Amino acid sequence: MRVHEYQAKQLFADYGIPVAASAPATSVDEAVAAASELGFPVVVKAQIHAGGRGKGGGIQLAEDATDVREAAARILGMTLVTPQTGPEGRVVRTVLIESASDIAQELYLGMTIDRANRAITIMASRAGGVDIEETARTNPDAILKETIDPLLELRPFQAFRLACRLGLPTKTARGVSKFIQSLYKLFREKDCVLAEINPLAITADGAPIAIDAKLNLDDNGLFRHPELVELRDLNEEDPLEVEATAVNLNYIKLEGNVGCLVNGAGLAMATMDLIKHVGASPANFLDVGGGATAEMIEKGVHILIDDPDVKAVFINIFGGILRCDVLAEGVVAAAKKLDVKVPVIVRLEGTNVEAGRQILQESGLSFRSAVDLREAATLVAEAVKEAS
Ligand code: GDP
Ligand code: MN
Q1: What is the CATH number of the domain that holds 181?
Q2: What is the helix (H) or strand (E) element at residue 145, kind and residue range?
């Protein structure tokens, strides 16, 4: 789960990580009131779950109330396109009004779980600011790393060593070292998978301050943090994915046109491979799981049919704990309620498969039934060809 910059900075403040005074605003009047409270100059910052906002025109310095009014009016409601949003952009619903900082130097600080190393890795660079992605590509050696032993956790000397390797004077290095240790504490206690401060600014008097704040939380750790779940912003997520998680379906939208409904992640992978193999492309990953009910299946079919990219549906089920007759009932119920205009290919195998096939046959709906995977693949390829 991602959170907004203003939410991350609130958490930073709780952990003693230095941030400038700020307040979120959802209207122009709120923005002006917040700025007057903070004192000028301020920075008006678009809050979306994507970076590169500066480059897209979503960050603006404001010297007085007139500036804030103009900036907030322009940014609130705009569709912000940045190198990270894709061409469709994101609608800005909130701005952060923040006291402007006097920046002498811009560093980069990142923390992530490095799966290859099986350890949290801290990254830092002198080349902070808006072009870090370019640096990572062209000059990866400019990004310094420190691997954290999961049994020993972050040792203070490691934080200080990293700060010194950045070539900072001792006093500043001490401040940055403390910054890193506080961020690490937050990272561990809140079950983060990524923290990124870019830039981590050094002010004119040598103190570190988080100018930007990106925090990604581990979805599997969220049950431990009900207070963090409340930070979720559904506006920033794919609406079909939101619908799917609400009923415990594993759904990920992809770019192709064959909607797939499968049980089990392994079978889902194999199914996507198969679709590719016959020259088509999956529109999604949808795993209904082992214990899916007829209602969940119905919802799954619903989600597939609601996706305008889907030109054919492929239901590929191996009935184990999920019985084929339960699956068939769900599919029939969904198809009766919805106006299904695309071909639906069904391949069933496993527990109660005969009963399942019978339910599909007797439904009076036009499913294309396949006995095995090879036949299913052929039918999928045909259906996609018909559609195009
Ligand atoms: P991003 O473009 O989404 O990464 O947004 P950032 O929060 O990183 O802001 C982009 C850039 O705006 C930063 O790298 C800074 O150079 C500049 N910026 C943001 N806030 C301030 C501020 O308070 N003072 C100054 N001088 N520059 C700022
Ligand atoms: Mn940034």
Answers
A1: 3.30.470.20
A2: strand 143-148
Number of domains in the chain: 3
- Per DSSP, 51 falls in state S
Instruction: Return left, alpha or beta for 92; rule: phi > 0 is left, psi -120 to 50 is alpha, else beta.
Output: beta
Catalytic residue of the set 6, 108, 184, 251: 108
Is this structure's pTM higher than 0.85?
Answer: no
The rounded Å distance from CA 211 to ligand 1 centre is: 6
- Ligand 1 atom at shortest distance from the alpha carbon of 5: 7
Q: What is the C-alpha to C-alpha distance for residues 201 and 70, in angstroms, rounded to an integer?
A: 26
Centroid of ligand 2 to alpha carbon of 107 (angstroms): 10
82 CA to centre of ligand 2 in angstroms = 12
Which pLDDT tens digits describe the chain residue by residue (388 residues)?
999 999 999 999 999 999 999 999 999 999 999 999 999 999 999 999 999 999 999 999 999 999 999 999 999 999 999 999 989 999 999 999 999 999 999 999 999 999 999 999 999 999 998 788 888 899 999 999 999 999 999 999 999 999 999 999 999 999 999 999 999 999 999 999 999 999 999 999 999 999 999 999 999 999 999 999 999 999 998 888 888 888 889 899 999 999 999 988 899 999 999 999 999 999 998 998 877 888 888 889 989 988 999 999 999 999 888 899 999 999 999 998 888 889 999 999 999 999 999 999 998 888 899 988 989 999 999 999 988 8
To the nearest 10°, the Cα dihedral for 251, 254, 258, 261? -10
Ligand 1 and 127: CB distance under 6 A: no
Q: Which CATH number does the domain housing residue 322 bear? A: 3.40.50.261
Distance of CA 376 to the CA centre of its chain: 33
CATH number of domain containing 72: 3.30.1490.20
From 100, 121, 155, the end of a domain falls on 100
Query: Are both 29 and 9 inside the same structural domain?
Result: no
On whether both 10 and 141 belong to a single domain, the answer is yes
The answer to whether the CB of 89 is under 6 A from ligand 1 is no
Residues 56, 163: one domain?
no
Q: Domain of 359?
A: 238-387
Answer yes or no: 6 catalytic: no
